[in-house]
Design goal:
Strands 2, 4, 5 and 6 form a four-stranded antiparallel β-sheet that branches. This protein has a three-stranded antiparallel β-sheet with strand order 1-3-7, with no helix packed on it. It folds into two domains: 127 residues, no CATH class; 78 residues, no CATH class. The chain is built from eleven helices and seven strands. A hairpin with a 5-residue loop joins strand 5 and strand 6. It is α+β, with helices and mostly antiparallel strands.
Length: 251
């Protein structure tokens, strides 16, 4: 009796690896069953790669197995839209030389990765207060206003587009990083600007534990956890998203 040929396996990464090799960059599929993950942005200047490109970002959003499975058969741009990326942001990051990758890793435990919780307003603010003890008092003070005030109202108070400032980056004095927040009056609007520019709670963040598309449709369940280097994620896998071919991922 002839034996069936063995199925090809997706390349894996372990904690001894720091950068994806060429095989991983072009890998056509990624496992999603029983795993958690997020789409990350990598740049040639980043060494080693991390769960997020921003050095001062201490918390990140991740998807669980059901979220990964729900985007598994979608093209790259649709995947990004379903987890809360705007098309303008994706276009800008690609122009800046970033590539997008699906990162998946084993089920987190509090012992290995710290606490992970569904990204509701309550859990998200608690995670941010824990990660940034310098501003925990502001988070506590303004939690109620953050939950009930629309993003548009905060932009109206500020008098400018948060996205336009973000495009310029920290060279714009209106970009609210941690040091500027500590030197600011510490209003709810000041804090919301920090959440936008540093912790990446965008205009699409809804606070109900699910992502939102630009059209307002609910996306995937999302969780918040402390940022970690990829080297601490154990057997992680990276799959490059191919925008040209409309690449799909294996569920």
């Amino acid at each position: 009796m002839m034996k069936k040929p063995a199925k090809a396996k997706t390349a894996r990464r372990d904690s001894k690896s720091s950068t994806p090799n060429a095989a991983n960059k072009s890998a056509p599929i990624a496992r999603t069953r029983g795993r958690y993950g997020r789409i990350i942005r990598l740049h040639p200047t980043m060494n080693p790669p991390a769960m997020t490109e921003e050095a001062d970002r201490r918390v990140v959003m991740v998807m669980g197995p059901s979220g990964l499975k729900s985007i598994a058969d979608k093209p790259a741009l649709t995947m990004l839209s379903s987890i809360g990326y705007t098309k303008a942001y994706v276009k800008r990051k690609l122009a800046e030389g970033f590539t997008f990758h699906l990162l998946t890793f084993p089920k987190p435990t509090e012992k290995t990765y710290g606490r992970m919780a569904i990204a509701t307003w309550t859990n998200t603010l608690a995670a941010i207060a824990a990660a940034y003890p310098e501003i925990a008092h502001l988070v506590k003070l303004h939690a109620g206003e953050l939950k009930c005030t629309s993003f548009g109202s905060f932009e109206k108070q500020a008098g400018f587009s948060f996205a336009a400032v973000d495009k310029t980056g920290a060279s714009d004095p209106r970009f609210m990083n941690l040091s500027r927040l500590l030197d600011s009056p510490g209003s709810a609007c000041d804090l919301r600007r920090f959440l936008y520019h540093v912790t990446r709670l965008s205009e699409l963040y809804n606070g109900d534990g699910r992502t939102r598309t630009e059209e307002g449709d609910p996306g995937v369940r999302e969780y918040i956890m402390a940022n970690r280097p990829l080297t601490e994620l154990g057997q992680y896998e990276l799959t490059a998203l191919n925008f040209a071919s409309g690449q799909k991922l294996q569920g």
